[in-house]
Amino acid sequence: MTITKICCIGAGYVGGPTCSVIAMQCPHIKVTVVDISKHRIAQWNSDKLPIYEPGLDNIVKQRRNVNLFFSNDVENAIKEADLVFISVNTPTKTFGVGKGRAADLTHVENCARIIAQVSTSNKIIVEKSTVPVRAAESILKILSANHKPNVKFQVLSNPEFLSEGVAVENLLNADRVLIGHEETADGFWAFKELSKVYLNWIPEEKILRTNTWSSELTKLAANAFLAQRISSINSMATICEETGADISEVARGIGLDSRIGSKFLQASVGFGGSCFTKDLLNLVYICEHLNIMQVAMYWQQVLDMNDYQKSRFSNKIIESLFNTVTGKKITMFGFAFKKDTGDTRESPAIHVAKTLLDEGAKLNIYDPKVEHEQIQRDLTHPYVTENPEAVMKSIEIHNDPYYATINTHAIVICTEWDEFIELDYKQIYRGMIKPAFIFDGRKILNHDNLTKIGFQVHTIGRR
Ligand code: NAD
Ligand code: UGA
């Protein structure tokens, strides 16, 4: 079998960009991305894509309705495909056993059931969603118990390592493509077939072959290690603030050790995003389940440190503003969990906003890419407030960063958007209530210049 038709179930942050890049690099393959959400598919078929990713618009424009299709017709797309990616969300369970920790595999299981039900030819099923170790076994069991006569499936694990904001670049120049397969001749054959797709643009030496379980665990391990670096540097930032050391200097000093490396050592208000917290919780749950409690506690600490960091930053704002923010107007610059994305899932900005709102502050919020409705949804969510009407009265969402700062007491930088570096802070200072404060939660501004202008500057990892 040569793969000529691919179906991807899940048109989200992973399915959309990944399949757009496959369609661009493999013009001979028809790629259909399907989703149960009518709204999401309509957006993928419109001029305004549902997600913002630099470079993605261009690719979609080039390939859409050529060899890249977005559709709600899940059944037909599966039926005609040689290979099916499962790229659906795997959120943390909100109910039952493992609530608040284990991954909820309902969507993955639904995919397996529908694949078994509609498939009339052999297929390679690729688990792209991030899942607990041995999830592929459950998928295979469901497929085996429900398939039509003479239809065979091979299940591969091919986790995704892209980062939002640089997804296209990551997909085009992946550090590695990891494929885990069943240790049988058929498993090896399926690995070869998926490799052929990637070999259209990924060098062979970057395609890594492992067994299925190693592949699944590698994904969780990679996110755990990355998150651990951020919590480690943030823990050092705390020491810096108490001692007069500067975290930027410490990060540079340790990052030049080639065994440590310089990436992912940026102290911050804390990590956010849809995956680090969820995947770490999942890892901790797996360890607890395996009764290796010391390991569970070790990784739990990475999460605890992140919560500590977010709280520390929010509390610092309140303390610096003379221990009360009640009735004070505060500008939040940035609401996305990192720059170059409109995604707010688990954004540290939500935590900061919640703390300030709980204390009675009024917030002016500006983010260049996050939709206003999304900010409203996030801040009126039951997790944030029991009184959504009061929150709506306490927030103003702005389209202009300068306007957002007028008559406010403080600016809080929550996302490291490049445009915040270029703003005219002299002009901003003139319009603010004095003393005017800046809390740089991303360490992106020139603090000496801001101090010269007259700002009271507070940041992370420096006194
Ligand atoms: P997402 O929520 O953006 O997209 C998932 C999509 O799947 C949604 O549009 C949903 O409607 C759809 N879906 C759910 N069940 C379905 C079904 N039965 N049939 C058809 N469609 C269905 O999620 P995402 O951010 O793309 O993440 C997907 C997976 O990839 C997760 O497991 C995540 O951990 C992993 N991952 C995400 C990233 C990232 O940067 N977001 C990176 C690497 C891995
Ligand atoms: C992360 C991983 O980097 C990807 O490899 C992985 O595929 C993905 O999770 C996933 O599984 O979902 P992502 O969450 O998109 O990607 O973005 P990151 O660049 O990792 O940033 C995550 C958070 O950490 C952001 O809030 C960011 O601001 C913060 N961060 C990052 C820091 O605070 N300091 C750093 O040095 C780096």
Automatic annotation (TrEMBL):
Protein name: UDP-glucose 6-dehydrogenase
Organism: Cinara cedri
Family to which the UniProt record says this protein belongs: Belongs to the UDP-glucose/GDP-mannose dehydrogenase family.
GO cellular component: nucleus
Residue ranges of the TM segments: none
Signal peptide span: none
Reactions catalysed: UDP-alpha-D-glucose + 2 NAD(+) + H2O = UDP-alpha-D-glucuronate + 2 NADH + 3 H(+)
Pathway: Nucleotide-sugar biosynthesis; UDP-alpha-D-glucuronate biosynthesis; UDP-alpha-D-glucuronate from UDP-alpha-D-glucose: step 1/1
Gene Ontology MF terms in the entry: NAD binding; UDP-glucose 6-dehydrogenase activity
Role, per record: Involved in the biosynthesis of glycosaminoglycans; hyaluronan, chondroitin sulfate, and heparan sulfate.
NCBIfam families: NDP-sugDHase (TIGR03026)
